[in-house]
Amino acid sequence: MARKTSTTSANSPGPGSRSSSAASSISLASSSFSLSVGSATLKRPTAPTSRISSGMRSLTSFSNVTPTRIAGCYQSVYNFRVIQSHCFLCEPDPSLVIATHASIQFMVGLGPITPTYAMIASRTHMPSLADLAMADPAAVVEIVALRHRIEAVRGPLLMTEHGRVPVCRDEDQHEAHCFHAHALLFALGGRGLNEAHSYYAQCATFPTLGSALEYAAGKDAYMLVSSSSSKYNIHYGPLNTPRQLARMLAAVAAEEIDVADWRRNPRKAEAEVMATSIRAALEEDA
């Protein structure tokens, strides 16, 4: 049974308080918080959710994006914007790939932030893991089994996904890889992304990945945050959510703010070493 909760200002730390997982010079709880990373700026919404939930649709840029519209325009947007560009998830760098399965591939992502930083991505173009689960239910089993395998050799991992990035918005400059459903895995030593709720109007909690994605399938844009294999939060009703939110919050928690933007800090050599290490650990554990 899902436990649904509404994110309100009462659940957020008061102005001026500090996040226990944040870097010493950063306060995520402040209503005036702003973090610039490369060309991106992370700002916490300043209006309490309880005051804007009813009018959220008119205050965000997601109001005209629905699952139906995403499905209707997805292929045309892909043809227009992506088909002529290189997609590193269609043709992943072999030095970063750890394992390939029927529906998904597992690899180390560019710009590693934590001692283990990995990506689980669909092998085909899909708007989100929720869409992948509807199209191929076996993919959910693959994802859960893969996470369990990697945690057995690398320790607990936080899993996140920005589901259904609103690709229909012409002003967004999405890279080709945004058309692959992909989850990010961070080794944060048990720390979570508690501030994620501040960027969404509501949250629902589920005990399994399958039930979480089934619920997310009925939402427009959503964010999946899973602190363990038995807890999955689906945040929905975005409040001007910035790009790379999961990476930015993880970078703050890991006190690696300067490398939050993977484009500016790809750390390719470190990613390759990490991939080699994970492959060796999995082979030894097999």
Describe the structure.
The chain is of the alpha+beta class and 286 residues long. The protein has helices at residues 49-52, 56-59, 67-82, 129-135, 138-154, 209-216, 245-253, 268-285; strands at residues 3-6, 34-37, 40-43, 97-100, 104-108, 117-122, 158-163, 182-186, 200-206, 222-228, 231-238. The strands form two sheets. Strands 1-9-11-10-7-8-6-5-4 form a nine-stranded antiparallel beta sheet, with helices on both faces. Strand 4 and strand 5 form a beta hairpin. Helix 4 crosses helix 6 and helix 5 (138-154) packs across helix 8 (268-285). The longest helix has 18 residues, at 268-285. Residues 3-34, 36-40, 46-84 and 167-174 have low confidence and may be disordered.
Give the overall shape, derived from the CA principal axes: globular
Number of helices: 8
Strand content: 15-25%
Provide mean pLDDT, rounded: 75
Look at the helices and sheets and give the structural class: alpha+beta
Number of strands: 11
Question: What portion of residues is helical?
Answer: 25-40%
| N-to-C order of helices and strands | EEEHHHEEEHHEEEHEEHH
Kindly report how far apart the N and C termini lie: 35 Å
What layout of secondary structure does this protein have?
Blueprint: E1 3-6, E2 34-37, E3 40-43, H1 49-52, H2 56-59, H3 67-82, E4 97-100, E5 104-108, E6 117-122, H4 129-135, H5 138-154, E7 158-163, E8 182-186, E9 200-206, H6 209-216, E10 222-228, E11 231-238, H7 245-253, H8 268-285
Helix pairs in contact: 4-6, 5-8
